[in-house]
Give the backbone structure.
Amino acid sequence: DSGVTQTPKHLITATGQRVTLRCSPRSGDLSVYWYQQSLDQGLQFLIQYYNGEERAKGNILERFSAQQFPDLHSELNLSSLELGDSALYFCASSPRDAHQTEQYFGPGTRLTVT
Amino acid sequence: GENVEQHPSTLSVQEGDSAVIKCTYSDSASNYFPWYKQELGKRPQLIIDIRSNVGEKKDQRIAVTLNKTAKHFSLHITETQPEDSAVYFCAARYPYDYKLSFGAGTTVTVRA
Protein backbone atom coordinates (compact mmCIF):
# COMPACT_ATOMS: atom_id res chain seq x y z
CA ASP A 1 0.00 0.00 0.00
CA SER A 2 1.57 3.27 -1.15
CA GLY A 3 -0.56 5.50 1.08
CA VAL A 4 -2.16 7.19 -1.94
CA THR A 5 -5.89 6.59 -2.18
CA GLN A 6 -8.18 6.96 -5.17
CA THR A 7 -11.93 6.75 -5.52
CA PRO A 8 -13.87 5.27 -7.09
CA LYS A 9 -12.15 2.03 -8.06
CA HIS A 10 -14.36 1.48 -11.06
CA LEU A 11 -16.60 3.81 -13.02
CA ILE A 12 -18.86 2.95 -15.91
CA THR A 13 -20.57 5.77 -17.73
CA ALA A 14 -21.95 6.71 -21.12
CA THR A 15 -20.50 8.87 -23.85
CA GLY A 16 -21.13 12.57 -23.37
CA GLN A 17 -21.23 12.32 -19.59
CA ARG A 18 -19.00 13.95 -17.00
CA VAL A 19 -17.17 12.22 -14.15
CA THR A 20 -14.95 13.23 -11.26
CA LEU A 21 -12.07 11.13 -10.01
CA ARG A 22 -10.65 11.76 -6.57
CA CYS A 23 -7.17 11.33 -5.16
CA SER A 24 -5.75 11.74 -1.66
CA PRO A 25 -1.96 11.92 -1.52
CA ARG A 26 0.26 10.31 1.08
CA SER A 27 0.34 12.15 4.38
CA GLY A 28 2.74 15.07 4.06
CA ASP A 29 3.05 14.95 0.27
CA LEU A 30 2.41 18.26 -1.44
CA SER A 31 2.58 17.21 -5.09
CA VAL A 32 -0.08 15.28 -6.96
CA TYR A 33 0.31 13.95 -10.50
CA TRP A 34 -2.35 12.47 -12.75
CA TYR A 35 -1.60 9.81 -15.37
CA GLN A 36 -3.72 8.03 -17.95
CA GLN A 37 -2.94 4.44 -18.87
CA SER A 38 -4.56 3.12 -22.02
CA LEU A 39 -3.88 -0.30 -23.50
CA ASP A 40 -2.10 1.10 -26.52
CA GLN A 41 -0.42 4.17 -25.04
CA GLY A 42 1.24 3.17 -21.81
CA LEU A 43 1.45 5.72 -19.00
CA GLN A 44 0.80 9.28 -20.11
CA PHE A 45 1.32 12.24 -17.83
CA LEU A 46 -1.69 14.54 -17.67
CA ILE A 47 -1.10 17.24 -15.06
CA GLN A 48 0.68 18.07 -11.80
CA TYR A 49 -0.30 20.18 -8.82
CA TYR A 50 1.93 21.35 -6.02
CA ASN A 51 0.41 22.73 -2.83
CA GLY A 52 -2.72 23.82 -4.65
CA GLU A 53 -1.12 25.29 -7.74
CA GLU A 54 -0.83 23.82 -11.20
CA ARG A 55 2.84 23.08 -11.95
CA ALA A 56 3.01 21.17 -15.19
CA LYS A 57 0.74 20.05 -17.97
CA GLY A 58 1.16 17.09 -20.22
CA ASN A 59 -1.07 15.80 -22.97
CA ILE A 60 -4.26 16.71 -21.18
CA LEU A 61 -7.32 17.29 -23.32
CA GLU A 62 -9.28 20.50 -22.98
CA ARG A 63 -12.29 18.39 -21.90
CA PHE A 64 -10.28 17.38 -18.84
CA SER A 65 -9.49 19.59 -15.88
CA ALA A 66 -8.12 19.13 -12.40
CA GLN A 67 -7.62 20.95 -9.16
CA GLN A 68 -5.95 20.48 -5.81
CA PHE A 69 -7.79 21.59 -2.71
CA PRO A 70 -6.45 23.19 0.51
CA ASP A 71 -6.44 19.77 2.22
CA LEU A 72 -4.22 18.62 -0.70
CA HIS A 73 -6.62 16.10 -2.17
CA SER A 74 -7.07 16.42 -5.90
CA GLU A 75 -9.88 15.85 -8.36
CA LEU A 76 -9.69 15.10 -12.06
CA ASN A 77 -12.79 16.10 -14.01
CA LEU A 78 -13.48 14.44 -17.35
CA SER A 79 -16.31 15.84 -19.45
CA SER A 80 -17.99 15.11 -22.78
CA LEU A 81 -16.65 11.60 -22.44
CA GLU A 82 -15.74 9.59 -25.52
CA LEU A 83 -15.15 5.88 -25.95
CA GLY A 84 -11.42 6.56 -26.26
CA ASP A 85 -11.34 7.99 -22.74
CA SER A 86 -11.75 4.49 -21.34
CA ALA A 87 -8.55 3.85 -19.41
CA LEU A 88 -6.97 3.44 -16.02
CA TYR A 89 -6.40 6.80 -14.35
CA PHE A 90 -3.68 6.91 -11.73
CA CYS A 91 -2.67 9.62 -9.41
CA ALA A 92 0.73 9.72 -7.76
CA SER A 93 2.14 11.89 -5.01
CA SER A 94 5.54 13.05 -3.91
CA PRO A 95 6.77 15.13 -0.96
CA ARG A 96 7.74 18.20 -2.95
CA ASP A 97 8.21 19.26 -6.50
CA ALA A 98 11.96 18.97 -6.59
CA HIS A 99 13.36 17.36 -9.67
CA GLN A 100 14.54 14.10 -8.18
CA THR A 101 11.66 13.05 -6.02
CA GLU A 102 10.07 9.63 -5.97
CA GLN A 103 6.46 9.38 -7.05
CA TYR A 104 4.16 6.84 -5.40
CA PHE A 105 1.09 5.69 -7.28
CA GLY A 106 -2.42 5.12 -6.03
CA PRO A 107 -4.47 2.02 -6.96
CA GLY A 108 -6.10 3.75 -9.92
CA THR A 109 -9.63 4.31 -11.18
CA ARG A 110 -10.76 2.19 -14.09
CA LEU A 111 -13.05 4.24 -16.30
CA THR A 112 -15.20 2.51 -18.88
CA VAL A 113 -17.13 4.68 -21.31
CA THR A 114 -19.91 2.86 -23.16
CA GLY B 1 10.62 17.38 -23.15
CA GLU B 2 11.92 13.84 -22.88
CA ASN B 3 11.43 10.77 -25.06
CA VAL B 4 12.11 7.33 -23.58
CA GLU B 5 12.44 4.13 -25.59
CA GLN B 6 12.32 0.74 -23.89
CA HIS B 7 13.39 -2.69 -25.16
CA PRO B 8 12.40 -5.43 -25.40
CA SER B 9 8.62 -5.17 -25.30
CA THR B 10 8.34 -8.77 -24.07
CA LEU B 11 10.83 -10.98 -22.29
CA SER B 12 10.48 -14.64 -21.32
CA VAL B 13 13.09 -16.16 -19.03
CA GLN B 14 13.56 -19.44 -17.22
CA GLU B 15 13.24 -19.27 -13.46
CA GLY B 16 16.66 -18.63 -11.98
CA ASP B 17 18.01 -16.89 -15.06
CA SER B 18 18.67 -13.15 -15.36
CA ALA B 19 16.51 -10.57 -17.10
CA VAL B 20 17.77 -7.31 -18.57
CA ILE B 21 15.63 -4.41 -19.80
CA LYS B 22 17.17 -1.44 -21.56
CA CYS B 23 15.97 2.13 -21.95
CA THR B 24 17.33 5.10 -23.82
CA TYR B 25 16.42 8.73 -23.29
CA SER B 26 16.72 11.70 -25.56
CA ASP B 27 17.68 14.65 -23.38
CA SER B 28 21.11 14.60 -21.79
CA ALA B 29 19.85 16.96 -19.08
CA SER B 30 17.55 14.29 -17.59
CA ASN B 31 18.76 13.45 -14.12
CA TYR B 32 16.38 10.99 -12.46
CA PHE B 33 15.54 7.49 -13.69
CA PRO B 34 13.03 5.33 -11.77
CA TRP B 35 11.82 1.84 -12.59
CA TYR B 36 8.29 0.69 -11.85
CA LYS B 37 6.79 -2.79 -11.70
CA GLN B 38 3.12 -3.20 -12.52
CA GLU B 39 1.18 -6.39 -11.97
CA LEU B 40 -2.02 -6.93 -13.91
CA GLY B 41 -4.72 -4.48 -12.86
CA LYS B 42 -2.59 -2.96 -10.12
CA ARG B 43 -0.73 0.25 -9.57
CA PRO B 44 2.84 0.84 -10.75
CA GLN B 45 5.21 0.25 -7.84
CA LEU B 46 8.57 1.96 -7.60
CA ILE B 47 11.19 -0.78 -7.33
CA ILE B 48 14.44 1.11 -7.79
CA ASP B 49 15.68 4.45 -9.03
CA ILE B 50 18.96 6.06 -9.92
CA ARG B 51 20.10 9.63 -10.05
CA SER B 52 22.44 11.08 -12.61
CA ASN B 53 25.38 11.40 -10.22
CA VAL B 54 25.47 7.61 -9.73
CA GLY B 55 26.48 4.93 -12.24
CA GLU B 56 25.00 1.87 -10.58
CA LYS B 57 22.64 0.98 -7.77
CA LYS B 58 21.73 -2.41 -6.37
CA ASP B 59 18.95 -3.66 -4.12
CA GLN B 60 19.04 -7.41 -3.48
CA ARG B 61 18.29 -9.12 -6.82
CA ILE B 62 17.64 -5.87 -8.67
CA ALA B 63 20.25 -3.50 -10.08
CA VAL B 64 20.13 -0.47 -12.32
CA THR B 65 23.00 0.94 -14.36
CA LEU B 66 23.22 4.35 -15.98
CA ASN B 67 25.45 5.39 -18.87
CA LYS B 68 25.06 9.15 -19.21
CA THR B 69 27.35 9.39 -22.22
CA ALA B 70 25.28 6.93 -24.20
CA LYS B 71 22.02 8.14 -22.60
CA HIS B 72 20.84 4.72 -21.62
CA PHE B 73 20.00 2.89 -18.44
CA SER B 74 19.20 -0.73 -17.73
CA LEU B 75 17.38 -2.86 -15.18
CA HIS B 76 18.94 -6.17 -14.22
CA ILE B 77 17.01 -8.84 -12.33
CA THR B 78 19.06 -11.82 -11.19
CA GLU B 79 17.83 -15.24 -10.04
CA THR B 80 14.36 -14.54 -11.42
CA GLN B 81 11.35 -15.98 -9.63
CA PRO B 82 7.73 -16.45 -10.80
CA GLU B 83 6.67 -13.42 -8.74
CA ASP B 84 8.93 -11.26 -10.90
CA SER B 85 6.44 -11.76 -13.77
CA ALA B 86 4.93 -8.32 -14.44
CA VAL B 87 5.19 -5.29 -16.72
CA TYR B 88 8.22 -3.14 -16.01
CA PHE B 89 8.36 0.54 -16.94
CA CYS B 90 11.40 2.77 -17.06
CA ALA B 91 11.04 6.53 -16.81
CA ALA B 92 13.16 9.63 -17.08
CA ARG B 93 12.72 13.07 -15.64
CA TYR B 94 13.84 16.21 -17.41
CA PRO B 95 15.05 18.69 -14.78
CA TYR B 96 13.08 21.65 -16.10
CA ASP B 97 9.86 19.74 -16.18
CA TYR B 98 8.01 18.00 -13.39
CA LYS B 99 6.67 15.00 -15.23
CA LEU B 100 8.01 11.51 -15.65
CA SER B 101 8.28 10.34 -19.24
CA PHE B 102 7.69 6.60 -19.34
CA GLY B 103 8.90 3.92 -21.68
CA ALA B 104 6.30 1.71 -23.33
CA GLY B 105 6.85 -1.14 -20.87
CA THR B 106 8.33 -4.65 -20.93
CA THR B 107 6.19 -7.67 -20.15
CA VAL B 108 8.39 -10.12 -18.27
CA THR B 109 7.31 -13.74 -17.94
CA VAL B 110 9.29 -16.06 -15.70
CA ARG B 111 8.79 -19.70 -16.67
CA ALA B 112 8.83 -22.21 -13.83
Q: What stands out?
A: The interface with chain A takes residues 31-32, 34, 36, 42-46, 49, 51, 89, 93, 95, 97-105 of chain B (CB under 8 Å).
